[in-house]
């Protein structure tokens, strides 16, 4: 069921403390941790503690928590002293999503070209 932890979800396991991560921030509703395969000098993932497969389903079901994810992404950028940064939500395998638990990538510390990819 959406919102409930999923036994086979890597990010649910991180939230539960069953899988280690380099946590940089934690709030009542979110966890932010360093990506294990960084694509920029700063690459932090911000995830909701509740399970939803992607950003759109999170926003539809729990808009306040979707807002928390964005707010925390901004806090991560501020703590990392990023003047410019990108927040990315990949949705679906064709867009590069590999963990089907909503998450924001906070990327910065180098020039980021447009369009991406």
From TrEMBL:
InterPro entries: Histidine_triad_HIT, HIT-like, HIT-like_sf. Residues 10-117 form the HIT domain. CDD domains: PKCI_related. A motif (Histidine triad motif) lies at residues 101-105. PANTHER family: HISTIDINE TRIAD HIT PROTEIN. This is Histidine triad nucleotide-binding protein. It comes from Streptomyces polyasparticus.
